[in-house]
Write a structure and sequence with these properties.
five-stranded antiparallel beta sheet, two-stranded antiparallel sheet, alpha+beta
């Protein structure tokens, strides 16, 4: 790929000089194309697995969600702004809220690097779903938590099937 730029200098309506550059941008275009392909594959994998990703910057108090996370939590990207408070108060089901907050806070207090938990979610439609969160916690040189990078996967079907199996086992044991 070649990128050209030119400037024409005119005197009395006639071009008297041309100044220009020609640059090979093949490497840049190739890298850009490969990045787009990689992002496309990541989005497709998240969609197939019903898994979304997030990053929570604890210092800046900024939360970023992947497009798939908005979809699986049934939130409108234009109307819902992810934050610590909106997640705990609008996404996490009241039955799970205290436990989730305690697990995250305790993991940070203990300087854990990994966190894995299951929580119930209340969808805007009123439907309840179950999600598994896997989180990597990053710390700065002073051992202060700075970033939570994680995923959340819709495990509703698997979780409800497990509960049904446990109930069946209890009935069989009686």
């Amino acid at each position: 790929f070649i990128e050209e730029q030119a400037e024409f200098i005119q005197e009395n309506g006639k071009i008297v000089k041309t100044i220009g550059t020609v640059q090979d941008v093949t490497e840049s275009k190739t890298i850009h194309f490969e990045l787009e392909q990689s992002e496309s594959r990541l989005k497709e994998a998240q969609h197939v697995a019903q898994i979304g990703s997030f990053e929570y910057d604890l210092i800046q108090e900024k939360v970023l969600w992947s497009d798939e996370l908005y979809k699986i939590y049934e939130r409108d990207k234009k109307r819902f702004t992810p934050s610590r408070d909106s997640f705990y108060n609008e996404v996490v089901h009241p039955d799970s809220r205290e436990a989730v907050i305690a697990k995250v806070d305790e993991a940070i207090k203990r300087k854990s690097r990994n966190l894995d938990y299951i929580h119930k979610t209340l969808m805007p439609s009123g439907k309840e779903k179950w999600f598994r969160a896997l989180i990597k916690i990053k710390y700065d040189k002073n051992n202060k938590a700075t970033i939570l990078n994680g995923t959340s996967q819709d495990i509703t079907e698997l979780y409800l099937t497990r509960l049904d199996l446990e109930k069946s086992e209890i009935r069989l044991q009686k």
